Amino acid sequence: MSDSVSSPQASAVRSYPQEEPKPPLAIFLLLILVVMVPIEFSLKLGSLSLTASRLYLVFLTFMILPYLGELKLRAFDWFFIGHVAWTCVAYAKIYGVGGAVEMSGSYFLEFLTVYLAVRIYLQRIEQIRAVVSLLFLLAFISGVLALPEALTGVHFIHDLGTSITGIVYRLNNEMRMGIYRASSFFEHPILYGVFCASSFGLMWFTSSAVQRMYRAPVLMLATWFSASSAPLLVLLIQISLIIAEKFTRHLKRRDKLLAWAAGAFVLAMQTFTGRGVVGIVTMITINPGTAYTRRAQWNFAIDDVMRHPWLGFIPSTYTRPFWLAPSIDNWWLLVMMRSGIPSLILLALSVLFMWIAIARRQDVPLLFSQLRTGWGLMMIAVLLGAATVTFFGKLQPLFSFYLGMGAALATCTLPAANAGTLPAPQGRSELNYTRFPRSSTRTPSVPPTARKPAKP
């Protein structure tokens, strides 16, 4: 898909986009159905539970099939596909045929279909920025609806869903820090909080100074309504990294310096603390009992992982004392338990190669630099936060969506770094004043039958 570059005379008239780009319709519907439709609106087929988002993903899978042949797969794509394939095989092995259909099918839809859809449809950085705005809007709506829930303890969104469909999803009514833990549209307060906190870095680096003044408090307050340590950890990590980024801009090769510093920190934690990085992260919690439980889960479950390193085992059967519940509050540990160590390695390699591909893009415009920095900080926080929470329910496809955004950043079409760029007016933030060429044709919102998108 070609872009028509505006003339210098036209660029001099206005130094910002004349119209706000919009996310492709397929991506818009995906986020709306994943975030805003509660689990009570599900279709039960025997043991299968088909949520609204899964039904849409079935449809979306068939819609993206014609474009897979034109998709130029990179190393991180192959590692990601390998992770999903290995996980589905492991599910078939440890759960049998019935479990393979349900669990493998769900994982395929919520991980691979989501990733490939984002990879295919987000072809320009303007679209990715529009998705960031949509994520903020969804977090804002979720936070507004979480406010009365945090004050009253009434899960009215889920109660409304139950009154319509008759499906009951039980939620605990726990109070922390003087408020009730809100879930909003999500299945658990932790999932709601992680969603609100996760896009903070992306919001920060793609917003003007004025926008930050109200967007940052909105995300902070929405995260606080969850009253959960994992979301607060994800939020605080991003804030800390934003401050560090601010004060290290003058350093040359700061990426390598920070990498060496992070490596030294990890080595010190592993050598001198007796707990390691995972142990330290799992101790960051509001409830001291939760920290002890998470540490015990790791100590007992990792032995079973070593006994079943290739394809894993049923997580609820791990060796543990009678007082320790079968649930796992560490997504990285859960990945190894249910699909083996190779599954985790493949996913880690996908993220690593994706990161390298994004970092190596040269002569990039300002907007890409902002998105690259924001996505990188977000992923550091989410990856660390995953050591304190399990990505289930809505958070599983959302995590894949974030990885798909990284793949889109690594492969999207970029305008020239200095194409029509004018200085920002005095007193205004430069973030919104970089002009990018307007496309002569619209990117299809949903896969058309008469025209295919450009090869990523």
UniProtKB/TrEMBL annotation:
Keywords for the protein's UniProt record, in alphabetical order: Membrane, Transmembrane, Transmembrane helix
Lineage top rank: taxon: Bacteria
InterPro entries: WaaL-like (IPR051533)
Membrane-crossing segments per the record: 24-43, 49-68, 75-92, 129-147, 153-169, 190-210, 222-245, 257-286, 331-359, 371-393, 399-419
Region (Disordered): 425-456
Compositional bias ranges of the Low complexity kind: 434-456
This protein's record includes keyword NADP: no
Name of the featured protein: O-antigen ligase domain-containing protein
Organism: Fuscibacter oryzae
